[in-house]
Amino acid sequence: MNDESMEQYRDFLKDSIRLVTDFTKTDQNTGVPMPPVEKPFAPGAKLVDLPARSEWRTIGSVDVVSAVENRRSRRLYKSGPLTLEELAFLLWATQGVRERLQSGNVRKTVPSAGCRHAIETYLCALNVTGLEEGVYRYLPLEHKLVLEFLEAGLSGKIAKAAFDQAFVGKAPVTFVWAAIPYRMEWRYSVAAHKVIALDAGHVCQNLYLACEAIGAGTCAIGAYHQVLMDKLLHLDGRDEFVIYLAPVGKV
After folding, report:
1. What is the CA radius of gyration of the chain?
2. Which of 121, 148, 145 is nearest to 245 (CA)?
3. How many CA atoms lie within 13 A of 250 on its CB side?
4. Under 8 Å CB-to-CB from 45, ≥6 apart: which residues?
5. pLDDT per residue over 155-186, tens digit each?
6. Which option is the CATH number for 3-250: 3.90.180.10, 3.30.10.10, 3.40.109.10, 3.20.20.70?
7. Residue 106: beta bridge partners?
8. Tens digit of pLDDT for each residue in 207-217?
9. Contact of 251 with 77, CB cutoff 8 Å
């Protein structure tokens, strides 16, 4: 990439807000209805109840200083499974709903620009107690999982889509975060694309810290084959696409 091209990308990061010359012309301000805060699921889809916060009996307690101090990327995991209780805690810590607002928005356990929360959480579950091996999606409004589909050879396929990083296919579960950009574009137009990336970072950092509480580890991954990863999750790659992922296992 030449210096001129590089500078154009840098300018976008610096000037994305300025590019929106008139915020009164965004879809929000022209009266277009707000997009849903959660991707709909099909009637009759298989839902999996997750333990509620009041039912978390075995989740450990780690002080904030220790969690931050011990946070690191971990690529080696024990062979044992994650429990459904542990998974529920990690999902709540990264995308859990704290409050529903009259506007239709929600406040979650992570910050989001304009409270737009453009991220959907998919799980490639390989070894989670009580779950069949397959791809699931977290429903934060219901605090449930929806089974998206079962997939033969999922371990090998997700490792391949992660540029053959073998440890991804060995983790009990991999969190795969997809962006639905219009949720953010509705309010911010082209400025949305900068803050979507920031939002994904907030989510993953919460996962790192929450893993410390259950004796687990994770490793943020931004290096993956975009087309293969979108295809693996059955995403169209335009109106919804993978933006980040992180395998999780006990350490």
Report:
1. 18
2. 121
3. 11
4. 146, 147
5. 999 999 999 999 999 999 999 999 999 999 99
6. 3.40.109.10
7. 100
8. 999 999 999 99
9. yes
